[in-house]
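Entry 14. Ran structure prediction on the chain below.
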Amino acid sequence: MSATRARSGSSEYGEASIRVLKGLEPVRQRPGMYTRTENPLHIIQEVIDNSADEILAGFGSHIDVVVYADGSVSVEDDGRGIPVGNHPEEKSPVVEIVFTRLHAGGKFDKRAGGAYSFSGGLHGVGVSVTNALARRLEVIVWRDKREHSIAFAGGDVVEKLRSKALPAGGKGSGDKSGTRVTVWPDPKYFDSAKIPVDELERLLRSKAMLMPGTQVRLRIDATGKELQWHYEGGLGEYLRGAMEAEAIAPVFEAEGYAPADDETFAEGEGARWVLAWTEEGNVVRESFVNLIPTTAGGTHESGLREGVFQAVKAFAEAHSALPKGVRLLPEDVFARLSFLLSAKVLDPQFQGQIKERLNSRDAVRLVASFVRPQLEFWLNQYPEHGKRIAELAVAQAQARARALQKIEKRKSSAVAVLPGKLTDCESTELARNELFLVEGDSAGGSAKLGRDKEYQAILPLRGKVLNTWEVERDRLFGNAEVHDIAVAIGVDPHGSQDEADLSGLRYGKVCILADADVDGAHIQVLLLTLFFRHFPRLIDAGHVYVARPPLFRLDVPAQGRRPARRLYCLDEDERVATLAKLQDEGVRADAVEIGRFKGLGEMTAQQLWETTMNPDTRRLLPIGLGEIDQGGTVDAMTMLMGRGEAQSRRAWLEAHGNEVEADV
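Output, structure tokens:
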């Protein structure tokens, strides 16, 4: 009876249970996936970014923003105006498609002569998200000597596209072009419907700074406040006004962009930057990609960091500015550095729709390749400035060294017994040091050549490590590979209930680096078994990682403004997704040369560094237990790794084997 009642009362799950969200409904159902929901600023920023993209493309010279007393906001520019004719395939006005369709826009077209070669818009969801989360949205377009208007409510068209001729001569004449978008954000989608005016001001001020000569105006009707920004001096003028303290050397401002014959980057890709070092006060650090603020930084900032560090280090060494025993690190050079960085990237890959962080791997080399030579030349051209900057960096390095002396150093006896196969790093800073446990001697050789010897150590492993799940702790060191691992990391084997002594730990990250195939996965499991069973405190403390090398290499031919490039994919799913994206960009499938790495040993040292070891571009998976049942984990590991569990494993494989996609 009870079972019958349970079944009759349960929710029905059938074909009709599956919903297909259409149009802008996905945005309204899950707004947090597309924008910030604290307040409507980000959906207004999407409109502002479109106006900025017009100016970035070379059209227009002003952006006017008005915050009205009723909470609505208008953004107007003097660009080309959104096209209003019917789309050749969709047979609807383009201005309507842009605001009512996800993944529709002019930013996808990256070919030579496209509407937007460089832009912040990538996904084609920006202003359609704005429309979806607005009670009402009105668009006026001035184009082709006519004024066109259309209105939406809740994302749907409520006033169809209308058009009228503009009068000849005078204000609002037939020569007028541009777009005005007025948005009434819907309060039900946001924690607060109020626009944070101070954040809006910072956003507009940065747009003016990034586009020298552009007039940006803001009017707040509720208070009568009016502001305008116009920076002829660009980045340098902005940074000087933002810094609290006087710089120890003149502000260094420069730029670099790839020429048409560049073999690595597309024509026009590059960056502008301005640098200033101060002895006190807060540092100012802002970065942008195609005028989009990247508040969480990203690979373009990593490129700036690399270029600046190498330039200052080279200058200090050439001018004997480094005292004996002082080791200069990137954080020493960057500690008192204020900077503004504006990068131009043809097809930037951001983290998430709100675009707070740049993930494009090539941006590291792009920015560093322009920053280092120009800064190094400037430092040597004005050695008095260079010496002051070097002295400041050295002072930071010495302060860091003094702080480290308070930390208990590793015992000298531990150094004498380190494994002979271990290629150790130079640094003694636990938090920074990394140990890579590498599958095979050949891969270990590539890793040794590709690593950063300052803080990365390599321990090659021969063959597959012993399955240690049922090995007693006292017998562990009977296996040479396990012995070498334990001695290298500086921690004795222990159990989950033991108070492990981690004071001898020599590396903040212990990274498992194996081939991206079944054998490599097996080695990963064996090593994870070792750590989970005999070094559990390392996992608890977050010291164990799995490096993720790519399985595929894609060589993409030159296309329009974009030169030939090389892409890497972790697995088959990523390869399929990357090929689909390339086809959307107009690259023929048969033009892409696909290579498969049979193992780490096939990768050059440079490839291994770029894809798997460089902290700025690698994909490193942290290992942790999370909020799970410890006993259940032990039972599962016993079933998978226990010697007497063959029947249990067989039953498990028969039940779940079809769920596995194995690369054999």
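Confidence is low (pLDDT under 50) at residues 1-10, 105-116, 119-124, 407-416. Will compare against last week's run tomorrow.
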